[in-house]
Write a structure and sequence with these properties.
- This protein is an alpha+beta fold and 93 residues long.
- It folds into two domains: 62 residues, no CATH class; 31 residues.
- The chain is built from three helices and five strands; from the N terminus they run H-E-E-E-E-H-E-H.
- Strand 3 and strand 4 form a beta hairpin.
- The longest helix is centred in the C-terminal third of the chain and has 28 residues.
- It starts with a helix and ends with a helix.
């Protein structure tokens, strides 16, 4: 019984807390505050939990350099294959 009372008292006297995050790349959208350094700050209040689920949302955009490199290598590989095939076809004629 004491454990339940302790947990309820913590929930009853909960005022607010804050959470912050740093996203990679360029920040595109968020549902809270954004400071100059690119940190996102969510100020969470008790009222937010009473009426609906609280959502912390942040979106960022960054280039995937490795995906670009793999794509370029693939396109070059296919292009060289097509050129070699055409050259061999012309040599046999």
């Amino acid at each position: 019984m004491q454990i339940i009372e302790e947990r309820l008292s913590k929930a009853f006297f909960f005022n607010a807390y804050s959470t912050q995050a740093l996203m990679p790349g360029k920040l595109v959208a968020t549902n809270e505050y954004n400071d100059i350094d690119g940190m996102i700050l969510w100020l969470v209040k008790m009222e937010n939990f009473l009426t609906r689920p609280y959502e912390m949302r942040a979106e960022s955009k960054s280039s995937n350099i490795w995906a670009w490199a793999v794509s370029v290598v693939y396109v070059v590989f296919v292009g060289v294959g097509l050129v070699l095939r055409l050259v061999r076809k012309m040599d046999t004629q």
